[in-house]
Amino acid sequence: MQIERLSNTERELSFQAMRQLYIACISSVADYEVPIWWNNQKHLLEKFQKLQNQTLRKILDTFKTSSVSVMEIEASISSLKVRFNRICKNYALRILQMHDKHSIRLRVSSDFSSFNSEIDLDWSQYLDWNETENSQHNHVYSEQTTSSSRRRKRRRTDKKKQVSQLFKITASIADLLSSLKTEIISHKENTSWKESLDSLININISELSKEEEAIQHKNLIQKLIKYQNINNVIIYSDDSKNENTSNLKAGIFYTKNFAIKNSRNLSWNLNSHMKVFDAELFAIEKAFKLALDQISCYTKDIWVFSDSQAAIQRIQKSDVNADQNHVLAIEKYTAKIKVKYQVNIHLNWVSEHMNIKDNELADQAAKKETELQKASTEKYVFFSFIKRKIKESALIEWQEEYAKTNKDKFYSQFQCLSRWNAYKKTVKKKTWSAFI
Q1: Under a CB-based contact definition with an 8 Å cutoff, are residues 168 and 35 in contact?
Q2: Residue (of 159, 319, 92, 346) closest to 234 by Cα position
Q3: CA 398 to chain centre
Q4: 130: confidence class by pLDDT, cuts 50, 70, 90
Q5: CA–CA separation, 349 vs 71, rounded Å?
Q6: Domains of the chain: which residue ranges?
Q7: What's the pLDDT tens digit per position in 347-382?
């Protein structure tokens, strides 16, 4: 390996840098087309394992006798079986997001499609792509010999036709889907000439620190309060998660010129089959819908504030990806506002937990336990939620695999936990090799 030389120099690369080189330059190439051929073949796994073992010893500078499972835990590099299974599951998730007329999608059973089905998941009805056992049938047939006309009977065992690799991949996420209905992806909206939301909305994500951004935001609010003759619609959005039930809630605080009589809170009770990121986008979508309902001919500016930078950055893209339905809904509400009224629409990031009163009111609305409106998102499973479940299931599989392996006396006394992220603290390789 040419990368091997980088770990042998006097000023060698750190453990984190060598690990990143392996992930970016070696494993990314080795994992090419894994979903096509991976079926737990031990003879193929051994070839890849030799490559990973050699790399782990160079990353951690350990002896040849070091336990492989221990090196994988210390380097935060999952075992090959776990990695390959995760790649196949991610490809199954990718199939879910493909167009109905895609050549891959056409080869998958129609029962796998979750866009048009409203029934709960019952895997016993979908054995055509979720079958894992091969039933055997005995048949008695006659064969005529060439030497004589005498017929003899033979008993033959016919195995049921093996399901295709594509069906096996789609079945790998069966236990992660609680419903056959997933969020809807619109491929018609994914056009290169489509006008972006940046041309309709003034999107601002400050690069200042949280403290500086909080001061700047309070100055902006003071200016809006000062000019009471200008009609401003101001909305704060936020989300909340119930740690006991894992259910998510979304809330918004709406006001016109910060007048008490023109202010109110709204809350929505969402399901547990989504991430906090999805709830943030849901809250922003409802904020734009409320702005469309409350706007008047006297409105000059619409201000929507959110404390999620990731949600705002997702709104800037309408590509075929998770949570596309929220982005398209925001585009629709924005276009209707622009057609009817000459107003300026602003979407700004505001720092959370910085004593910003109105943002705290939105947070309180999201945490409200009573009088919550039910949202239609209960019927759908979000792609981001499935992706998180794939990641969690891979971590559990890795931990179970590590528990079954033989470890040396030193590591047997510790309960090592598998993790995806490596230690951030830089340690010399001599220190690593002294323990591993």
Answers
A1: no
A2: 346
A3: 19
A4: very low
A5: 42
A6: 1-132+165-182+381-436, 197-378
A7: 988 887 655 555 565 565 555 644 445 554 445 778
Residue with tokens 């055509």: 128
Partnered with residue 348 across adjacent β-strands are: 204, 305
C-alpha 396/C-alpha 357 separation (Å) is 41
Alpha-carbon gap, residue 281 to 250, rounded angstroms: 9
Structure tokens at 150: 């005498």
Q: Where are the beta strands (DSSP E) in 280-409?
A: 299-306, 344-349, 373-374
Helices (H) and strands (E) in the chain, counts: 17, 9
> Quick one: 9 exposed, middle or buried, by C-beta within 10 A (0-12, 13-18, 19+)?
exposed
Q: Give the list of residues 6+ apart from residue 370 with CB closer than 8 angstroms, or none.
A: none
The tokens for 27 are 């494993």
Please say whether the beta carbons of 285 and 311 come within 8 A: no
What is the residue-wise DSSP string for 264-290? EEEEEE--SSS-HHHHHHHHHHHHHHH
| CATH, range 197-378 | 3.30.420.10
Write down the residue that tokens 């299974």 correspond to.
85
Nearest alpha-carbon partner for 93 in 154, 176, 217, 207:
176
Radius of gyration (Cα) for the chain, nearest Å? 28
Exposure of 23 in the CB half-sphere (CA atoms within 13 A): 16
pLDDT at position 162, please?
Answer: 57
Cβ neighbours of residue 181 under 8 Å, at least 6 residues apart?
114, 115, 117, 118, 379, 380, 381
> Which residue type sits at 229?
N
- Could you read off the pLDDT of 224-270 as tens digits, one per residue? 777 665 678 888 888 777 766 667 888 888 888 666 677 788 888 87
Residue in the block written with tokens 């979304």: 250
Distance from C-alpha of 221 to C-alpha of 230, rounded to nearest angstrom:
13
Give the HSE-up count for residue 87: Cα atoms under 13 Å, Cβ half-sphere. Answer: 20
- In percent, the amount of the chain with pLDDT more than 90 equals 11
d(CA 26, CA 271): 40
Residues in the chain: 436
